[in-house]
Amino acid sequence: MCLGIPAQLVEIVDPAAKIAKADVAGVRRDVSIALCPEASPGDWVLIHVGFALARIDEEQARETLALLEQIGPEYEQELAELRAGTP
Amino acid sequence: MPALSNPLLEPLSDSALLEVDGSRLAFTTDSYVVKPLFFPGGSIGDLAVNGTVNDLAVAGARPIALSAGFVIEEGFPIDDLRRIVFDMARAAEAAGVPVATGDTKVVERGKADGVYVTTAGLGVVPAGLELGPERVRPGDRVLLSGTLGDHGMAVLLARGDLKLESELRSDTASVHELAGALAALGSGLRWMRDPTRGGLATALNELARESGTTVVLEEETLPVRPEVAGACEILGIDPLYVANEGKLVAVVSADTADAALAALRGNLLGADAAIVGEVRADPAGLVLLATALGGSRIVDMLVGDPLPRIC
Amino acid sequence: MRFVSEYRRPDLARNVLREIEALVEPGCPVRIMEVCGGHTHTIYRHGLQQVVPPQVEFLHGPGCPVCVIPMGRVDDAIWLAEQPDVVLTTFGDMLRVPGKRGSLLEAKARGADVRMVYSPLDALELARREPDRTVVFFAIGFETTAPATAVTLLHARDEGIENLCVFCNHVTIGPPLRAILDTPGTLVEAFVAPGHVSTVIGTRPFDFIARRYGTPVVVTAFEPVDILHATAMILRQLRDGRCEVENQYTRVVRRDGNLRALDALAETMELRETFEWRGLGWIGESALRIRPELAAWDAEARFDLPARHEDDFKACRCGEVLVGAIKPVDCKVFGTACTPERPLGACMVSSEGACAAAYQYARPVSLTTA
Known about the structure:
The structure holds three protein chains of three kinds.
Chain A: E1 5-14, E2 19-24, E3 27-32, E4 44-48, E5 51-55, H1 58-70, H2 73-85
Antiparallel strand pairs in A: 1-2, 1-4, 2-3, 4-5
Chain B: E1 16-20, E2 23-32, E3 38-39, E4 42-43, H1 44-58, E5 62-73, H2 78-95, E6 99-107, E7 115-125, E8 141-144, H3 150-158, E9 164-165, H4 176-183, E10 189-193, H5 199-211, E11 214-218, H6 226-235, E12 249-252, H7 257-265, E13 274-280, E14 287-290, E15 296-298
Parallel strand pairs in B: 5-6, 11-14
Antiparallel strand pairs in B: 1-2, 2-7, 3-4, 5-7, 8-12, 8-13, 10-12, 11-13, 14-15
Chain C: H1 10-23, E1 30-34, H2 37-45, H3 48-51, E2 56-60, H4 71-81, E3 86-90, H5 104-109, E4 114-116, H6 120-129, E5 134-141, H7 146-159, E6 164-170, H8 174-182, E7 190-194, H9 195-201, H10 207-213, E8 217-220, H11 224-240, E9 245-247, H12 259-268, E10 269-271, E11 274-277, E12 281-284, E13 288-290, H13 299-302, H14 318-322, H15 346-349, H16 354-362
Parallel strand pairs in C: 1-2, 1-7, 3-4, 3-5, 5-6, 7-8, 8-9
Antiparallel strand pairs in C: 10-13, 11-12
Helix pairs in contact in C: 1-11, 2-16, 7-12
């Protein structure tokens, strides 16, 4: 349901069986990349019950953080002014 | 167990205190049934000595002797037994306490899971040292000697069922020097405990109930190694409930908190020591956590062992 | 921890909270329901209900796939564990859930071979290593977890491993959401939708909530700042008079989900006509079973399960809690006859259940005297 954790793929352990080693803060486990076969060592993926379910989009993550850093009433005000200014 | 009820057992703390000819003796016993017997950082032998020494130490006692009883399964490899005994001897030497007496019994194959060890310990509590939940006051501070959850997670991963690899090691160690450093503070030291099974949360819940106070922990101050945090995140376990075998939690008066912290940090085992919370008057009997985001939640008594979850 | 710790930063939380405060209106309560044990857990663990303005109320819906398994199905799992040469494997979450005959942990203490696994692939590995035993995997979880079971089944089929079978109790998120929205007098004004289920199914399956029921939805990640961010997005929708499915979890969730995972599900499982949800009753097309072609790996086909229906206790009001109609504290037996140690109903059985979480992390002081 929920407990998915971001992990970095360290190496492909068994290409035929689609097993890779994933690392979370130094703790490692073999996971299946059968559902995410395009993932390669160095990529960050979401792990749930021993499977990589999706690749983490680092660009999107950065954008989300940038948004969260700016968000607030001043940001709302800026957005409102921007909208009011466009023809 | 009502049949055994007597005033010495009543406080139900880790050690019993006995008055003998004007001296106070601390007397404690524990049985060790850990699986696996050998794990990164130690073995059942280390736990058997350090665990009992620590129960004496947190009672304020200077450990003077241990006894060790072994129940061994027939066919248990003699080399493994030698390793365990060696570990015990080494741990006893580090703690400066002799294993004065012992016993061995062999049982048939299939009983005893390899080996069970029981140790008992005797120590002397210096005159004038008074420790206990009744000494704890609102305004007191809570100190922790180091990182949380190292032992429990190391052992859980060592069992192999979850197939997680890590460099995690048990923190099994004798905390008698740390306890001694705090005892030197005098009446500013109120209470000590080694947060073993059930973790820090269990030790503090027992304190809160016995002292009728509230213990409030500050989330941001809790020391946790990144690997322990990572393993706990993967498995959905809360480090507050995971066993520690080389740590001590203490309550000290507010004005001795800084000195206490310095005393702990002055020892190698206390390098990561931190002030992690404080005692308040109410709601009585509860442990609360002030979250990093400014909210709060109850840190309840645990039901059973912490189990990994997927949800 | 990368991609986790950043979304727990107190400074970002403060930013979003200021945004939320600017968006709420005095005297206008907003009731936001989440339907995922992970969201329930985050909200309680970080104390989010206390930091948001009083107008914002988090409701906890039927998001715990452990809690909604009826007692009769747990009893079936225990029965399986007691069969000769069977090893019953499951996730840690299920071990303490009580059926009418106690829990799997208790069955293990009585001698049944019950083992905890982290992944269904571990059950498959066990089957490979112990060819003389029949390994049964007690599969639970929403669409997040079902693909893992699906891939495991495909591996077993392709390798010819016959001593593995699955007792399938996977459930789907759509039907209970519909059930909540169809409940007369429901107070839910918006949904924080489960981010990890969406990793598999995408965001499209939630479109009906916005279109047919006029209720905003934000598909959300699991850290506290994410949930606060989703709250701000919902408040903005309500203020603007918009009603959409938005994606807060853009770093992981794609609109179409994971097609490989959906294919694996289609190849191995199909929807049951109906399934009993503890606390909610029978809900149509809300659960999965193994396809007939794979009957050799289906525990329900290989074994003649007792399949008894067990009624919940009369005092139980879980059904009302699960749809957000009442709060745990409104239930007479909350914290008294019904506690995590002795749960009477679905909402108390696992730590993500609405009542278990409320009891453990935030129960009223009157219930705390031991």
